[in-house]
Amino acid sequence: MRVVWIAHDEHLGGAGLALLEGARGLLKKEVELHAIVPFRGALAEALEGMGIAVTVLPYSWWATGRMSVRGQLRYMVRN
Questions:
Q1: Do 54 and 47 meet the contact criterion of CB atoms below 8 Å apart?
Q2: Which candidate in 17, 35, 55, 75 could, as Cys together with 5 as Cys, close a disulfide (CB 3.0–4.6 Å)?
Q3: pLDDT at residue 28 in the model
């Protein structure tokens, strides 16, 4: 089986750590993994360190809701 993970950011926060944990479990089952991240960062490095192929494909935050001022500025710059 092959699985592509799509990460919403490049950080090792809650979602990134959950992705790593899930990837560890799937690697034990010999699942072929690939990850897509918006920017190179700690998450990409950790995934590559596990032998997982990583593609950096710049994209912006897709979820709706409240964003910090910093987040809004990043969103405007990316788009």
A1: yes
A2: 35
A3: 96
Q: How far apart are CA 47 and CA 65, in angstroms?
A: 28
Q: What is the arrangement of strands in the sheet containing 2-6, beginning at the earlier edge strand? A: 2-6, 32-37, 53-56
The alpha carbon of residue 30 and the mean position of all alpha carbons in its chain are separated, in whole angstroms, by: 20
- Position of tokens 């809650």? 14
Residues 42, 17, 15: CA angle, nearest 5 degrees? 100
pLDDT, tens digit, 9 for 90 and up, residues 13-59: 899 999 999 999 999 999 999 999 999 999 999 999 999 999 999 88
Q: Which residue has 């360190």 as its token pair?
A: 49
What would the two tokens of residue 1 be? 């089986």
